[in-house]
Structure formats: structure tokens, C-alpha cells
Amino acid sequence: MGLFNDLGKKFEKLKQTAESSADGEATHGCKECETLLYTDYDECPECGSDSVVPVRQD
Ligand SMILES: [Zn+2]
Predict the structure, then answer these.
(1) Of the candidates 56, 46, 53, which has an alpha carbon nearest to the alpha carbon of residue 31?
(2) CB proximity list for 13: less than 8 A, separation 6 or greater
(3) 35 contacts: CB under 8 Å, gap ≥ 6
(4) Ligand 1 centre and the CA of 41: distance in Å?
(5) Distance 14 CA to ligand 1 centre (A)
(6) Neighbour tally for 41: CB within 10 Å
(7) What are phi and psi of 7, to 5 degrees?
């Protein structure tokens, strides 16, 4: 029973993580490749461009 409970907790955590990433709360984005970013990068981790700009959140 203990094992089952541990697994249940892990799944719950995974679910919460997935939900919070799906919220689309990207704070920055790359103008070159349009990748959404969750941190302010000096260079885009995807294409290496320095066109990382803040995303306006209303
Ligand atoms: Zn990029």
C-alpha cells in the first residue's frame, strides 16, 4: 500500500508541473525563432540570437 501511495504523490506532482507549464506564463521570447522563454536570457538557447525580449503580460 505504501508503494501505491508514493506513486500517487509522484503523479500528483507531475500533473501540477505540467499544469503550471501549460499556463503559458513565459516572461521572455526570442524574436528570431519565436521560442517562448521562462527566464531572461542574454542569448536565445534555441538559436543563439540576442533578440530575447520581455513578453508583455496583461
Ligand atoms: Zn531564438
Answers:
(1) 53
(2) none
(3) 29, 44, 45, 46, 47
(4) 10
(5) 28
(6) 15
(7) -60, -40
Residue 30 near residue 43 (C-beta atoms within 8 A): no
Please identify which residue in the block is written with the cell numbers 499544469. 19
Interval 1-58: pLDDT, tens = 577 777 677 766 666 655 555 556 899 999 999 999 999 999 999 999 999 999 876 6
Domain map of the chain by residue range?
Answer: 24-58
Ligand 1 centroid to 4 CA: how many Å?
42
> pTM of the full predicted structure?
0.55
Gyration radius of the chain over CA positions: 17
What's the gap in Å between 51 CA and the centre of ligand 1? 7
